Amino acid sequence: MRREGAAPDEVAAGGRPLRRTPALVQPQPAAVRRVPPPLPHRTGIVSTALYVIGAGTASAALLGVALAGFVILVPAYGRRLLCRRERFVADLVGPRGFAFLTLAVSSNVLAARLVPDGHTAVAGAFLAFGTLGWLLLDYGVPLALVATLKRGPSLDQVNGTWFLWAVGSESVAVAAASLARVTAGPVLPVLAVVCWGVGLMQYLLVAAIVLTRLLARPVRPEGLMTSVWIFMGAAAIAVLAGVRLIALPPGSTMLSRPLIVGSSVVLWSFSSWLIPFLLALGVWRHALRRIPLRYELGWWNLVFPVGMYAVTTHELGRATGTSWMTSAGRWEVWVAAAFWAVVFAAMVAARLRPRRTTAHGSAAGAGQAAGREGAASTSPRMLP
Questions:
Q1: Are 168 and 138 in contact (CB under 8 A)?
Q2: What is the DSSP string of 211-227?
């Protein structure tokens, strides 16, 4: 029987208690883990990166993958809500609820990518959907965390997905500013600048909480997952939003161009500083503490920050007339594209491997698969 106040992932099927993972970054909610791993915002930002350097064919191909992923993603959330409502709601109102903002972020990233192709109406629809999702979740998740009584206050609940609180706001700013360049009216510029400012404040708040968690509580290497890279990606998308605001007509954003440029340069510098720090954490986890380096769903958490940083570097360099930054951004785009391809290939290989085992008719393998199925909802390595 579940003890009163226990988190949903503390009790497995059959009533067996599970040990809570004291990790900085907890596994994503079941509703998020069971959707296709190349979530649209991760593939969409790499498509955007390829577009800004003129690689139109590759960009269009990844845009198609991202759109297909979005078509699958939305029904997957709906099906999860209908079939496993209790678990879905428990994840939504829990400390990992910010991960659900990936739905709004995906819609906004696709909106921003579709604008330069001339699909203004479709981009507007994606922006409307993303803004609605952002409004519901940007308020709903923190309100649920404050109001729920079925949790004990602890820094152990803090995880990297909390940065999606800021990423969601900045994604609205990027999409609104991109669409404002090709449409008339004051609404979109105001929405863009307001969301940019809100996202900056949210980023500072979450960064303070996450750093407190890192410094005040022990972090086990097996619990330090890859979504901590959202720390860098959240700063990078704020820079991209600033670059999009710079491109708007003077006076439409209520902020001066030097203020936006200066803030963007500071954020880009900080996101650049974070990269060696995050790489060092990876070395500590895998080389020093010998955590096996094998494919897991969390690898996709690196794709979005890497792709976003590449776009940001290139676009900030172009907006400020800094040639070396534009050149560096061009190389970074190809690194992001190669990384996406590597992660995608690793995912395909990981999914094909169990099929080959089953094809050999191994009774032992079948028994192990059945055992793993019961733990799939709590183990981050059990991929759908």
A1: yes
A2: HHHHHHS---TTT--GG
Whether residue 90 contacts residue 81, with contact meaning beta carbons closer than 8 Å, is answered with no
The answer to whether 335 and 29 are in contact (CB under 8 A) is no
Angle between helices 40-52 and 102-114 (to 10 degrees): 30
pLDDT at 60 over 60: yes
Q: Which long-range contacts (CB under 8 A, 24 or more apart) does 285-291 make?
A: 285/221, 285/224, 289/221, 289/222, 291/221, 291/222
| The two three-digit tokens of residue 247, written as one number | 């491109």
Q: What are phi and psi of 20, to 5 degrees?
A: -70, 135
In whole angstroms, give the CA distance from residue 331 to residue 55.
Answer: 12
**Token representation of residue 32:** 């998020």
For residue 333, give both structure tokens.
């785009």
For tokens 């759908």, what's the residue? 384
Which of these, 39, 34, 9, 12, lies nearest to 23 by C-alpha position?
Answer: 9
Q: Which stretch of DSSP H or E encloses residue 304?
A: helix 300-320
Beta bridge partner(s), residue 11: 17
The three-point CA angle 162-158-214 to 5° equals 110
Q: Please report, as a single letter, which amino acid is at residue 4.
A: E
Coil vs helix vs strand at 247: coil
- Tell me the residue type at 297: L
pLDDT digits (tens, 9 = 90+) for 240-285: 999 999 999 888 888 889 999 999 999 999 999 999 999 998 888 8
Amino acid 78: pLDDT:
83
Which residue do the tokens 């990166």 mark?
49
- Report whether 107 contacts 126 (CB < 8 A): yes
- C-alpha to C-alpha distances, 129 to 61, 70, 84, 212, 281, nearest whole angstrom: 23, 12, 24, 34, 36
Q: How many Å apart are CA 378 and CA 369, to the nearest integer?
A: 15
Neighbour tally for 209: CB within 10 Å: 14
Q: Where are the beta strands (DSSP E) in the chain?
A: none
Mean pLDDT across 20-35: 44
Cα radius of gyration (the chain): 21
Please give the distance of CA 4 from its chain centroid, rounded to a whole number. 32
